[in-house]
Design brief:
- The chain has four domains: 17-53; 56-99, no CATH class; 116-169; 178-337 and 344-354, Ribonuclease H-like superfamily/Ribonuclease H (Nucleotidyltransferase, domain 5, 2-Layer Sandwich), CATH 3.30.420.10.
- The chain is built from twelve helices and seven strands.
- It has helices at 15-50, 59-69, 73-80, 86-100, 116-128, 134-143, 150-159, 172-178, 226-236, 260-268, 285-297, 306-323, and strands at 183-195, 198-209, 215-217, 249-252, 272-275, 348-353, 358-363.
- The protein has a five-stranded mixed sheet, sandwiched between helices. A two-stranded antiparallel ribbon has the order 6-7.
- The protein is elongated.
């Protein structure tokens, strides 16, 4: 005998319950319709507010809108008056689907690419060490625990436009550091002062030891001359207390104020003047930075009234520059560390110069 099929059970919903279900469905539909009408009015108001300007969305916002737009379809989207066109929304969705099955980003055959951190380290080693070849860089990486092939290093340098060893020039910064203690730099700064004759431009030549960042102002004058500059050169090369006693080279720009007589006096004292190429402010960057510092921190904040006032301001700033102002270029330390930096006792005092324009903090003795 064949197996008898089970009889289907027919559920009969009482009429009162059917009526209540119809009422509930109708109420929900009306609520949804009201929400949709409100959103349509809000979108229309936003479009009017934009005035035709184009909205820019992030990739995450595009993906979110595309996922919500796809089930609605183009006709329903037109009814909603979205802030972007239905074709744009559906185009975003197609792009989202295409990205899911895009295999172009997958790794092909062969070894995986080297990590970006190691690539950056290779580029840094090659830039900082122009005489290092591929094998030398490979050994330096091995010392740090990285195993990188020589040809891989060669490829990375070639892709970033870095020449092989022997063809990479030594940077000016590296050259200066290799000659610390023997190279000084000089430059001028100019400032306008108010005098009984009106505005007068004053010239302030200075010299800087590049290793320690210590400076010396040669003088302040409104009538610069070759004889005055020659005297400045004699002062800087004095056999007893000349600022350039430890220096062998003095770099300066091609300003005609550095006269032939000025350079001859330097050479006779064993200091070789080096004239920098024209339009190369970065070659004398340390001196240029001092000019910027003294002007922004001091001279640009006052109105010099006469030469005496200007001299006092420059003198006060130079003392502040040496003993009270930290310098990032020398490890955020003071140039003149005569103060006991290890002192941790005593009340903290705020001292000032030029009426509070220059301030510093120290421990009371």
């Amino acid at each position: 005998m064949g197996r008898r099929k089970p009889a289907s059970v027919k559920v009969v919903v009482p009429l009162p319950i059917q009526f209540l279900l119809f009422l509930l469905i109708g109420w929900v539909s009306r609520q949804q319709a009201e929400v949709i009408e409100y959103l349509k009015a809000e979108n229309l108001a936003l479009r009017e507010k934009l005035g035709g300007r184009r909205l820019r969305f992030t990739d995450a916002q595009r993906r979110r809108l595309a996922r919500r737009a796809k089930p609605l379809g183009r006709a329903r989207l037109r009814e909603l008056s979205p802030i972007v066109t239905p074709d744009t929304l559906l185009g975003w969705y197609r792009k989202l689907v295409a990205q899911k099955y895009d295999g172009s980003a997958r790794r092909g055959p062969g070894r995986p690419r080297i990590a970006s951190e190691i690539q950056a380290l290779i580029l840094e080693m090659a830039s900082d060490n122009p005489r290092w070849g591929y094998t030398r860089i490979q050994g330096a990486l091995a010392n740090l625990g990285f195993t990188v092939g020589r040809n891989t290093i060669k490829r990375i340098l070639a892709e970033n436009g870095i020449d092989p060893a022997g063809q990479r020039p030594t940077s000016w910064k590296t050259f200066l550091k290799a000659h610390w203690g023997t190279i000084a730099a000089t430059d001028f700064l100019t400032i306008e002062a108010v005098t009984w004759r009106g505005l007068v431009r004053y010239f302030v030549p200075f010299v800087m030891d590049l290793q320690t960042r210590r400076i010396e102002v040669g003088g302040i004058t409104a009538s610069l001359s070759g004889a005055w500059m020659s005297q400045i050169a004699r002062n800087w090369t004095d056999s007893e207390d000349g600022f350039l006693l430890r220096s062998r080279y003095l770099i300066h720009d091609r300003d005609p104020l550095f006269t032939k007589s000025f350079r001859s006096i330097l050479e006779s004292s064993g200091v070789h003047p080096v004239r920098l190429p024209s339009r190369s402010p970065n070659l004398n960057a340390y001196a240029e930075r001092f000019v910027r510092s003294i002007k922004s921190e001091c001279l640009a904040q006052i109105i010099p009234i006469g030469e005496a006032h200007l001299r006092r301001a420059v003198r006060e700033y130079v003392e502040h520059y040496h003993g009270e102002r930290n310098h990032q270029g020398i490890g955020n330390r003071l140039i003149d560390s005569s103060a006991d930096e290890s002192q941790r006792r005593g009340s903290i005092e705020c001292r000032e110069r030029l009426g509070g324009l220059l301030r510093y903090y120290c421990r009371a003795a």
